[in-house]
Amino acid sequence: MQSVPLTGEYAVEDVSEIASPSLLVFQQRLASNIRQMVEIAGDASRLTPHCKTHKIAEIVKLLIEQGVTSHKCATIAEAEMLASAGASRVLLAYNPVGPNINRVVQLLQTFPAVKFSVTCDHILPLQQLSAAVTGAQQQVEVLLDINCGMHRTGVAPGEAALELYKQIHASPGINAGGLHVYDGHNHQADLEQRRQAVDEIWQSTSALRQQLLAAGLPCPRYVAGGTGTFPLYAEVDPQIELSPGTPVFYDAGYTRMFPDLPFQPAAVLLTRVVSRPSADTLTLDVGNKAVAADPPAGARLYFPALPEAQEIIHSEEHLVLRTPAVCDLEPGTALVAVPMHICPTSALHQQVHVIRDGAVAASWDVTARNRCLTI
Ligand SMILES: Cc1ncc(COP(=O)(O)O)c(C=O)c1O
């Protein structure tokens, strides 16, 4: 088997026992990404990183070792994974609805030492959550979710936001926790343009915050930003909690999108050539069940050993690449591929292989890829 492609920045001495496709996590890179994220934040206590990127308890523990004890998530399973791994604060950035309302109550009951929070942008889930937590003699913190231009969830700063925040404060069993401001639409490659967008969000949301305080309402937290913007929020005000998710693993998409950021992809796919349909095409075992089908077909992976290769067919278990010239890679050859979008890719893998000093050192379960753990 050819070993050339697994030299270089993603060198692994021996991959003969690693089945493909699988996700490899290069631990030194992971550690360096975590260090740089903390450094950019200025202080570990300012971070509330989103666990959606990794979903792995061991990574939560590594973050906690660096002083990052507050974490964000999108599902009840992620919240449970975070609490079990030792996080002291867990923010579920979601309106809990349907059975998830009682699952939040179960989280509160199961992990009394953990401070759980959720976000809210509508009166109905707020009323239902309030009834459920008071019925169970519990309390939960609720942050108002702000729509700062992404138009996915949230209430725009203004009168409706003020009114809903008053309702949050007045609801039994609910502690008004401040504002949640996620600006996942801010993908400007130009740092100054991104900075300007962040400044505009800060102006409108701090005006709202002042209104809330002037109305006598507590507004303790302001949680903001993703990977591209958290360094900018870090500079704006020391009270802002920063919530990037992707830096731990990083990916080829953000590498291209944010040239100013120092992170490097730490989680990559191991794939093998399974077929050679023609002299300039090769078929790999990295179908869309192993790498996120986001972005659209044609640009889902970057191959350091084949930088010019084009993705021409992507199906469930296969990826066909066309190379610019005749290619001599035979079936069985192992290659490394950097995902464009790592968060939905990690969710496709039950375990990751952890590579330390060029060898497999451990396997970690991607625990919170499941929708339900015990709660
Ligand atoms: C609510 C919320 N906060 C934080 C993040 C982390 O953002 P990023 O992936 O840019 O680091 C995400 C990512 O989707 C998110 O949805």
Topology:
Elements: E1 22-26, H1 27-41, H2 57-65, E2 70-73, H3 76-85, E3 89-92, H4 100-110, E4 115-120, H5 123-135, E5 140-146, H6 159-170, E6 174-181, H7 191-214, E7 221-224, H8 230-236, E8 241-242, H9 252-257, E9 267-278, E10 281-284, E11 301-302, E12 310-314, E13 319-322, E14 334-339, H10 342-346, E15 351-356, E16 359-365
Parallel strand pairs: 1-15, 2-3, 3-4, 4-5, 5-6, 6-7, 7-8
Antiparallel strand pairs: 1-9, 9-10, 9-14, 10-13, 11-14, 12-13, 15-16
Helix pairs in contact: 2-3
The structure holds pyridoxal-5'-phosphate.
Pyridoxal-5'-phosphate (PLP) is lined by residues 50, 52, 72, 93, 182, 184, 226-227, 243-246.
In brief:
The protein is α/β, with parallel strands linked by helices and 375 residues long. The protein has helices at residues 27-41, 57-65, 76-85, 100-110, 123-135, 159-170, 191-214, 230-236, 252-257, 342-346; strands spanning 22-26, 70-73, 89-92, 115-120, 140-146, 174-181, 221-224, 241-242, 267-278, 281-284, 301-302, 310-314, 319-322, 334-339, 351-356, 359-365.
